[in-house]
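Recap from last week: sequence in, structure out.
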Amino acid sequence: MSDLKSSFEQAAKDVQSLSERPDNDTLLRLYALYKQGAEGDVSGAKPGFFDFVGTAKYEAWAKLKGTGQEEAMKKYVDLVKKLRG
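Predicted structure tokens:
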């Protein structure tokens, strides 16, 4: 698990230095996988109706409910690797 955790943390750093900004759907996927891997299932209240970005992030994370943290970490690392080319 520690190898996965260090790969996950490195991927979180690597995503900041991507040569091109991913599209919004990919950004939401990255966000959701990161949150699921770092914190587990979605928690807290859903943002208000007019907080469009917050609502989109919350809903993307909520779709991963039940996904194990380890699995989410692996998917996050794989997605970042794919984006880095």
